[in-house]
Amino acid sequence: MEIRSLCVLCGSQEGFGDAYRDAAQRLGRLIAGNGMRLVYGGGSVGLMGAVASSVIAAGGEVIGIIPEFLIRAEVGNTHVSELIVTDSMHDRKRRMFEMSDAFAVLPGGLGTLDETFEIITWKQLRLHQSPIIVIDTDGYWAPLSALIQATVRAGFADAKVLDLIQVVGSPEEALSLLAVTGRQERPYVSDQL
Q1: In the prediction, which pLDDT does 78 show?
Q2: pLDDT of residue 185
Q3: CB–CB of 5/99 below 8 Å?
Q4: Which domain holds residue 81?
Q5: 170 in any annotated domain
């Protein structure tokens, strides 16, 4: 399966320091450079805005999906290739899922956690087999990995759940992994910075 559309789950805030924004911008350039379409939450602020702006600046295609009530709060991005407005958060997640071949997770808050756990759970339930790659910028997602491991140690999940996600340290590793996982015919294109 070729990875043509990558859904990026990430925060509507930038977090503290430059590392998170830098990772989002690098991921955006890599998505466009590798000929993929970005599918994301439709906001123009925070890491969402950073990744989308970078894809757009590099000439890539961006599909934003945002619930109507969040257009003002997250400042719906009108510069995307297509902005899809949904009735609810549930519909947003469903549409993002339907339009994506793989998922990448950057740092984010409770909404990002919700989206991430839902897409992991859907994979556990065999509703999809799409790659889920968590980009552990500055160790942000170490508690997530520890939590998943704790569910296995405590007997609440089978050890197979550890294979539902792949954790990498950088956007470059994520795109390289997707190139292998997706068996793309084109070689991986690195960021030109």
Answers
A1: 83
A2: 40
A3: yes
A4: 5-180
A5: yes
pLDDT tens-digit series, residues 132-190:
999 999 999 999 999 999 999 999 999 999 999 999 999 999 999 998 765 444 443 44
Tell me if 186 is assigned to some domain.
no
Number of independent structural domains in the chain? 1
Instruction: Tell me if 189 is assigned to some domain.
Output: no
Residues counted in the chain: 193
Looking up residue 135, the CATH number of its domain turns out to be 3.40.50.450
The C-alpha atoms of residue 37 and residue 22 are separated, in whole angstroms, by 20
C-beta separation of 64 from 83 below 8 A = yes
Distance CA 2, CA 108 (A): 27
* Residue position matching structure tokens 């997640």: 93
Does residue 107 fall inside a structural domain?
yes
Residues 31, 171: Cα–Cα separation, whole Å: 9
Neighbouring C-beta atoms of residue 147, cutoff 10 Å? 11
The full DSSP string for the chain is ----EEEEE--SS--SSSHHHHHHHHHHHHHHHTTPEEEE--BSSHHHHHHHHHHHHTT--EEEEEETTHHHHTTB-TTSSEEEEESSHHHHHHHHHHT-SEEEE-S--HHHHHHHHHHHHHHHTTS----EEEE-GGGTTHHHHHHHHHHHHTTSS-GGGGGS-EEESSHHHHHHHHHHHTT-SSPP-----
